[in-house]
Design brief:
12 helices; elongated; 6-stranded mixed sheet; alpha/beta; 5-stranded mixed sheet; Purple Acid Phosphatase, chain A, domain 2; 43% helix
């Protein structure tokens, strides 16, 4: 049968063989383009900005103008020169770049927050390696003038508390044009950016400076929330801010015992949920967590670090949302948060990115079909009817 097939192939006209080859190339190219480019449009196109209850009574134009559309992601972990294999870097950075750029094009957020651990090796990278990491980050996460990008510092960017130095903190803040303990206000909404790595409470230079800034911000915000007819000499010379309860943005989550109460398909795996969290390593200490709640009385806390999703209520009324990792290196199902926010209300919606396992399944199915097409073309794989017919004719002969 093999000799018959090879003879058949040789006898095929050159034009037919070239036509078949072009079809195979077209098939492979189509699968590649879909899995590496189009799939991000197909998946992210299904995401929608959530509606805010507070904006319902207003007219459509007024609502769209007053609602801030915020995209929140965390833990991109751009691989460095020490631990990053070239193919792993190429693959993960392409995935994140395509996801981010597609999301910007389809969703058009007003502002994007990245909640720390931008880099994987910022805590020990040399000046040359740092410059290369920053260059790659700017290429992957470039954004239009209509969108603002705000980056919060994480432990992999400047090191854990015992590795953190003023040099590393200044290097990070210089690149991303921010300072630890900064307040930004957009559309009447107050956001407090916290360097949670510096919330160790041991009086280190970076910690003291960061806490002093947070205390000053707390005073400003508390004065802005007081009623206009309430006289307070301490607030007479304070800069006036919008009377809106702040939203805290930080890398470490506030203290919780574990992820045992977390649920959802992107929460921690069952075998990890009951693992106790270590204070000042997995989560903030109880003391630091209480300080932030006392200082700011936030209406929402957004954090990262754990690479898994979780929703927690602090003091019975303050919600905290832990945002999963944006990198496929850390998760099979990365995602980001879409937030519609007003000065008095907010609504959050999760947008999942393509599952990597599904992309591999598509590649495997396409590979199997590719082999079948080739075998069928060279007549090594024939339909059962013709195969049986040949056996009968052979037997009669």
């Amino acid at each position: 049968m093999l000799s018959y097939s090879s003879t058949t192939v040789k006898n095929l006209p050159l034009k037919k063989r070239l036509c078949f080859l072009l079809k195979l190339v077209g098939f492979v190219t189509s699968v590649f383009i879909f899995c590496e480019f189009l799939i991000y449009y197909v998946v992210i196109f299904q995401c929608r900005w959530p509606e805010v209850k507070g904006g319902a009574p207003m007219g459509e134009k007024e609502t769209s103008a007053s609602v801030l559309k915020a995209m929140i992601l965390a833990d991109t972990h751009l691989l460095g020169e020490i631990k990053g294999h070239w193919f792993d870097k190429l693959r993960r950075e392409w995935q994140m770049e395509r996801s981010f750029q597609t999301a910007l094009w389809l969703l058009q957020p007003d502002i994007v927050f990245i909640l720390g651990d931008i880099f994987d090796e910022g805590k020990w990278s040399s000046p040359q390696a740092w410059a290369d990491d920053v260059r790659r980050f700017r290429k992957m996460f470039k954004y239009p003038v209509s969108t603002e990008l705000v980056v919060i510092v994480g432990n992999h960017d400047i090191g854990f508390h015992y590795e953190m130095t003023t040099y590393k903190v200044n290097r990070f803040e210089k690149v991303f044009n921010l300072t630890s303990g900064k307040l930004i206000t957009r559309k009447g909404i107050n956001f407090v950016l916290v360097n949670s790595v510096a919330m160790d409470g041991d009086g280190c230079a970076v910690c003291s400076t960061s806490e002093a800034k947070l205390v000053a911000l707390s005073h400003k915000l508390n004065c802005s929330l007081q009623k206009p007819n309430h006289s307070n000499k301490r607030c007479s010379d304070v800069e006036e801010l919008p009377a809106s309860e702040p939203i805290l943005l930080q890398h470490y989550p506030l203290y919780r015992k574990s992820d045992a109460e977390c649920s959802g398909e992107d929460s921690a795996p069952p075998e990890e949920k009951n693992t106790p969290f270590k204070e000042k390593y997995d989560v903030l200490s109880q003391e630091a967590s209480q300080k932030l709640i006392w200082w700011f009385h936030p209406r929402l806390i957004l954090s990262g670090h754990t690479h898994s999703a979780c929703e927690v209520l602090h003091a019975g009324k303050i919600p905290e949302v832990s945002v999963p990792s944006f990198s496929w290196r850390n998760r099979n199902n990365p995602s980001f948060i879409m937030g519609s926010i007003t000065p008095t209300d907010f609504s959050l919606q999760k947008c999942f990115l393509p599952y990597e396992s599904r992309v591999f399944t598509i590649y495997c199915a396409a590979g199997a079909l590719f082999v079948i097409l080739i075998l069928a073309h060279v007549q090594l794989l024939t339909p059962p009817f013709y195969f049986a017919q040949r056996l009968i004719s052979k037997h009669k002969a």
